[in-house]
UniProtKB/TrEMBL annotation:
This is Amidohydrolase family protein. InterPro entries: Amidohydro-rel, GlcNAc_6-P_deAcase, Metal-dep_hydrolase_composite, Metal_Hydrolase. SUPFAM superfamilies: Composite domain of metallo-dependent hydrolases (SSF51338), Metallo-dependent hydrolases (SSF51556). Belongs to the metallo-dependent hydrolases superfamily. NagA family. Its cofactor is a divalent metal cation. One of its GO terms (molecular function) is N-acetylglucosamine-6-phosphate deacetylase activity. Pfam families: Amidohydro_1. Binds 1 divalent metal cation per subunit.
Length: 381
């Protein structure tokens, strides 16, 4: 697509702007006198997607078409860049699913454009109940550079983010080795001490995964993994703002402590996200109930069994929960995670033309979506 003007209102100013796209890149952004009721933004970026709309990158039957269909489902929600997230599992399962994602990128241009890298969450996490979350205890294991190299061999070097707990003796060496290879390292599902967390940051860890979740119900009042990560200015932090994983006061206080510029939103959705409410049998959690509000719980309990609200709806929830403005929250779902995705998520001259236009009341309603300048989704009549 060349020379195509796209009109929308800038959420920061309310002013209508004209975005000119040439060869997949934003050629110019200019104020204009025309009017529209559509807002415009860089496309959303989600660094933690386990699945959506019945599609699961951790399932037993993952094939390239699973990933290709997931990409199309994500684009329809305004997400133009996401990291498929593989969780703790036997190595053979991880390798198989890595290959499926890599093959999808090779065979489908939208998958290649949407998926900058793969996020592996685990298996090097805490064995302790609560901190481990829904990850299978039997497959938790210490970090191994040999295993990581096998991940990269299977995926063609696509593993770009690894979440781990730095309580293992060899964590610092492992983190340093991954960072030297250009891989982002995040701290998550951890019972590590403040000293171990500081040491992991010294080794190169730069992100906290869904901070405030993947933590035991009862922790020490002062020395605990949440305070240690919130206080470290070298760590950015991702948050699940679905109104179920964090109370409003907690999310607001955490974002204030971390700072807007170091705060990211992730969905952490599982395959049941986007499905009708009801009772399901899930690979993780067994019998689970998806409520009309999007809360996914163990059947008959209030215990969460995963996240089921897409990032686009988390933006509206985050505005409501924190009182931060729409442009402030949008930055947490575009430019801020974009720093971990090779500088994506920007609406400025020279940036890649990943764009969304939307209506805004109490939440975002996607109107149309561009991926590298190509119109890939449009609201149906």
């Amino acid at each position: 697509m060349s020379g195509t003007p796209i009109l929308g209102r800038d959420p920061s100013t309310g002013q209508c702007i004209r975005v000119l796209v040439e060869n997949g890149t934003i050629a110019s952004v200019e104020e204009c006198e025309q009017t529209t009721d559509l807002w415009i933004s860089a496309g959303l970026i989600d660094l933690q997607v386990n699945g959506y709309a019945g599609l699961d990158v951790n399932g037993e039957d993952v094939i390239p078409n699973t990933v290709i269909d997931l990409v199309q489902a994500m684009l329809a929600t305004g997400v133009t860049c996401f990291a498929p997230t593989i969780i703790t599992a036997p190595e053979a399962t991880i390798l198989r699913n890595l290959r499926a994602i890599a093959d999808a990128r090779k065979s489908d241009s939208h998958s290649a454009a949407c998926i900058p890298f793969i996020h592996v969450e685990g298996p090097h996490i805490s064995l302790v109940d609560g901190y481990r979350g829904a990850h299978s205890r039997e497959f938790v294991r210490p970090p191994s550079l040999g295993e990581f190299e096998r991940w990269q061999a299977a995926s063609g070097g696509l593993v770009g983010l690894v979440t781990l707990s730095p309580h293992f003796d060899q964590s610092d060496e492992y983190i340093s080795a991954l960072v030297s290879r250009g891989v982002h390292v995040a701290i998550g599902h951890t019972h590590a001490s403040p000293e171990q967390i500081r040491s992991a940051v010294d080794a190169g860890a730069r992100l906290s995964t869904h901070l405030g979740n993947g933590v035991a119900q009862q922790i020490a009042r002062h020395p605990n993994p949440i305070w240690s990560q919130l206080a470290n200015d070298r760590l950015s932090a991702s948050f699940i703002a679905d109104s179920h994983h964090l109370p409003a006061e907690t999310l607001k206080a955490m974002v204030r402590a971390k700072g807007l510029e170091r705060s990211l939103l992730v969905s952490d959705t599982v395959a049941l996200a986007g499905m009708p409410p009801g009772i399901y049998t899930a690979p993780v959690g067994g019998r689970v109930e998806l409520s009309p509000s999007g809360r996914l719980s163990m059947e008959g309990t209030t215990t969460l069994a995963g996240a089921a609200i897409p990032l686009v709806h988390c933006i509206g929830e985050a505005v409501r929960m924190t009182g931060f403005s729409l442009p402030e929250v949008l930055s947490m779902a575009t430019a801020n995670p974009g720093r971990f995705a090779r500088g994506r998520g920007l609406l400025q001259e020279g940036a890649r033309a990943d764009l969304i236009r939307f209506r805004w009341t109490r939440e975002i309603a996607i109107h149309d979506v561009w991926l590298a300048g190509e119109l890939v989704h449009q609201e149906s009549a």
